[in-house]
Amino acid sequence: MTGQQLTVDQLGRSADFGAFVRRQAAAGRLVVQPRMGFGDPGPMREGLIATKDADATTVGTLTLDSYTRVGELHAVEAALREGISLNGYPVVSHPQETTEAVLDGVSDARFPVQVRHGSATPIDIFWSLVRLRLNATEGGPVSYCLPYGRTPLADGVRNWQACCELYTRLRDVGVEPHLETFGGCMMGQLCPPSQLVAISFLEAMFFAQHGIRSISLSYAQQTDMGQDQEAVGALRRLCAELLPTENWHIVIYAYMGVYPETYRGAHRLLGRAAELAVRTGAHRLIVKTVAESRRIPTIAENVLALEYADRIARRTTELRPDTSQVLGDSPTYAEARTLVDAVLELDDDIGTALLAAFRRGYLDVPYCVHPDNAGRARSYIGPDGRLRWADIGRLPLRGVAEQRSTRRITSADLLKDLFHVRQQYDEEALRIGHDSDPELIRVTPARPA
Amino acid sequence: MSGDQSPASAGGAEADWSKGTVIVTSLASDSHTWNLVFLQLLIEECGYRVVNLGPCVPDDLLVAQCHALDPDMVVISSVNGHGYQDGMRVIHQLRALAPLAATPIVIGGKLGTDEDGARRVAELTAAGFDAVFEDAHDPVTAFRGFLSAMQPNERLLETADGVRR
Ligand code: B12
């Protein structure tokens, strides 16, 4: 819609995403969400409807395709012309009416829809969102840049600043924009939780500095439940202490690294993520499906994952408010706080501070090959299952974090750590056998050939 | 990203790289990196020097690097589901380079979003790839087989009395 007047439909559609999630949380419900995106408008609409109708408290997702992420719109056109299937919904290329029709009557005040992409050059995407009054999306100057390709970090920061400012203009037409940090996921795996917390939090501060008032902060499940609980507690404490808005919530991502291949292993890992979310008082969970290790999931597999996560969430209770993890009183908080303080001291402008931090190695993502990442820090999975620093590089964590300096990491070590979670959950699944938990075999998808 | 940025410098540093140089690369739209790290380690352990171009490699950068390095093999990895489309586009550009006309060029990973792998393999092979390693068919074992069948390297034999490549 080009004019300033919103239709009734758009007004409903443009309810504040953050307020919606917080309202559900107040009613004791964990909001669950898929990572769903199809190139064709038909399946995309069907997927949204199925998400809305699932037996769970859900919000919808439009995940964009990889060509749109990197601005290769001619490749989108080639794919659409030749009937080659895309790995997500090309929101910039489909005509606005097409996307309006996908959302029509589906996205409303009861069912907000978020757009997820992964672009360090997202200005076209943001213009499309603004035109469509799609007021919830995800990203960040660091997290949508370093793990996503070759765009210089300085460009990522500049682009994301411009996009935040563009997005806030939705308020001119009475619509509150919402942004979620992706910083709690860097590279999907093997980044120690304290740094995930720090980057996720710093991205939230960046959003706030550029006018965004409705914010969510991500944290991706890692290798150890205790450490993950500490991390979410740390993130919450940082928000309570420093984030200049009340309208924030935490979103947990089910494991983002190499996923179990067995049906049961995949669901157990998802179940653990749901438990993590409820125990730590996070308000939203993004699920993974049984197809994760192989291919983009079907609509049915997504619904199954949403309903399974919801069931686990309903039988889980929040940790007692006086536990150290809830209070954020932990080694993970100490490390994260040290990183955050060191970065914030570098400059009043958070974008500038982030650039300086990566230049100096105050932030350094293990195994990230982006040229603006120092690439000195290394991590490993300890014998107790916690993610640890093998080498802190120039991170300002001397005396704060333990590091193992005795042995260098060999290729075999790295591969073992990459496949650690998959192996653990698949082995457990095979040990338990196949019919002891009837909940898991309600719908058995055919195994792909 | 500099051409020889090595994400896997964590391991295998003292390996024997006498068999030649291999370019490991992703394609323009694919940001996945761990697959590249994995392949670099695997190929280094088989005795090659690896130049890892990293994620999201635009066509012209890939072509320029292949031209500059004249590698003994090019290994393309894509897992985001766009490998078929990106691979079909890039192979003609690579084969058009004189030094690459007969160089082994292979592609592997999760190459499409649907399960029509057989058709993709046939089309990519017809378009000029020497081998296609789709995920469903134990690609790593097949690839090891391919690597060992490549030996002894004919181009190395030609220069056996001269400088090692
Ligand atoms: C980690 C991860 C990410 C990280 C990547 C971080 C980074 N910079 O590397 C993040 C979160 C950023 C990410 C983003 C996306 N991802 Co991703 N990701 C994964 C995940 C969970 C693990 C991949 C991994 O690290 N594997 C470890 C490495 C060592 O192995 P591998 O990559 O699986 O490769 C193996 C084989 O394929 C083979 N192989 C690969 N290449 C080659 C080449 C040759 C020659 C040979 C012989 C063998 C070979 O060898 C490897 C070892 O067995 C997978 C799912 C999974 N596997 O569990 C999805 C997955 C690959 N991602 C997927 C997608 C679609 C995306 C996105 C496009 C968005 C989305 N819908 O989630 C984005 C954007 C990426 C882009 N622009 O291209 C899909 C691809 C689906 C498809 N092909 O149809 C997967 C399968 C998830 C899914 N089921 O939907 N992802």
* Unique ligands: cobalamin
Structural class of chain A: alpha/beta
The parts of chain A where pLDDT drops under 50 for at least 5 residues are 435-449
Strand order of the biggest β-sheet of chain A: 1-8-7-6-5-4
Radius of gyration of chain B over all CA atoms, rounded: 15 Å
CATH architecture grouping of chain A: Alpha-Beta Barrel
Overall mean confidence score, pLDDT of chain B: 85
Q: Main β-sheet of chain B: number of strands, strand sense, barrel status?
A: 5 strands, parallel
Span between N and C termini of chain A? 45 Å
Radius of gyration of chain A: 21 Å
Number of helices of chain B: 6
Largest beta sheet: strand ordering of chain B: 2-1-3-4-5
Protein name (chain B): Methylaspartate mutase
InterPro entries (chain B): Cobalamin-bd, Cobalamin-bd_sf
Organism (chain B): Streptomyces alanosinicus
Domain B12-binding (chain B): 19-157
Overview of the molecule:
- Chain A: Keywords: Cobalamin, Cobalt, Isomerase.
- Chain A: This is Methylaspartate mutase.
- Chain A: GO terms for molecular function: cobalamin binding; methylaspartate mutase activity.
- The complex is a heterodimer of chains A (449) and B (165).
- Chain A is α/β, with parallel strands linked by helices and 449 residues long.
- Chain A has one domain: Methylmalonyl-CoA mutase (TIM Barrel), CATH 3.20.20.240.
- Chain A is built from 17 helices and ten strands.
- Chain A has helices spanning 8-13, 17-26, 41-53, 66-70, 73-82, 96-103, 123-132, 153-168, 193-209, 225-242, 263-280, 299-314, 324-327, 331-344, 350-360, 411-418, 420-432; strands at 31-33, 60-63, 113-116, 136-139, 178-181, 214-220, 248-253, 284-286, 378-381, 387-391.
- In chain A, helix 3 packs parallel to helix 12, helix 11 crosses helix 12 (299-314) and helix 11 (263-280) packs across helix 17 (420-432).
- Chain B is of the alpha/beta class and 165 residues long.
- Chain B has a domain at 89-108 and 130-141.
- Chain B has helices spanning 34-45, 59-69, 83-95, 117-127, 139-149, 154-158; strands spanning 21-25, 49-52, 73-78, 105-109, 131-134.
- A five-stranded parallel β-sheet of chain B has the order 2-1-3-4-5, sandwiched between helices.
- In chain B, helix 3 runs parallel beside helix 4.
- Chain B starts with 20 loop residues before the first strand and ends in a 7-residue tail after the last helix.
- Mean pLDDT of chain B is 85; it is low at 1-13 and 156-165.
- Chains A and B meet through helix 4, helix 5 and helix 16 of A and helix 1 and helix 3 of B.
- The complex binds cobalamin.
- Cobalamin sits between chains B (29-35, 38-39, 55, 75, 77, 79-81, 106, 108-110, 113, 133, 135, 139-140, 143) and A (35, 37, 63, 66, 69, 87-88, 118, 147, 185, 187-188, 256-259, 291-293, 295-296, 418).
